[in-house]
Amino acid sequence: MKCMLCESPSFTHICSSCQETFLTPSIYKRKISNNIEVISFYKYKDIKEFLHTKHTDLGYYIYKILAYNSFKKFADSFEFEGKVSAIPIDDKIQSGYSHTAILNKALQSKNIKPLYNKLRAKNSISYSGKSKEFRILNPRNFELTDFYGEDIILVDDIITTGSTLSQAVQTLQNKGKNVVFCLTLADASLK
Ligand SMILES: [Zn+2]
Questions:
Q1: Nearest-CA neighbor of 19 among 64, 58, 55?
Q2: What average pLDDT does this structure show over 111-135?
């Protein structure tokens, strides 16, 4: 196949040289309302064309490449006393795959155990382009399936206002879980 960016022959949709140019991750940190740290690897504006492939057939491959360049590298160097569970936000399957489950899977490592189908939003109304007020008035109503493991990393693809993650953190804390931090691919608040 050809690299979708430079059109040179490639084994993957984005060739290794373009992955190095465009997908070398950074570490961006911010705090959400529960005083939980959120670590992101890219500025939303820098990878938005890739993120827009979500829910298409191509998105499956692109999210795997994004996860390999960021989540996997992070997990490989992550040190923790004991095991921490990684929980994706609302990993329901759309168009044949779940984009947050792909990110979560890349965290599989010595200290991180990815779990699936644990945290589901009963209200899946779109927050895209909506105000913070709208988001507060239309809570996600997360439902948690009980699981073994106390320390959690929460996983999502994009952080905007942080209200989805805050609500997810609250749901886990209400069940006595310890959210160590959150991981997202991209932060939409970064200029
Ligand atoms: Zn290329």
A1: 64
A2: 89
SS3 121: strand
**How many A from CA of 42 to the centre of ligand 1?**
19
Cα-to-centroid distance, 12 and ligand 1 (Å) = 9
Tokens representing 153 are 């990393």
- Which is it for the CA torsion 7, 71, 160, 22, positive or negative? negative
Alpha carbon 27 to its chain centroid, in Å, reads: 14
CA distance 18 to 160: 26
Length in residues, the chain? 191
pTM assigned to the model: 0.93
CA 124/CA 102 separation, integer angstroms:
19
Residue type for position 113: K
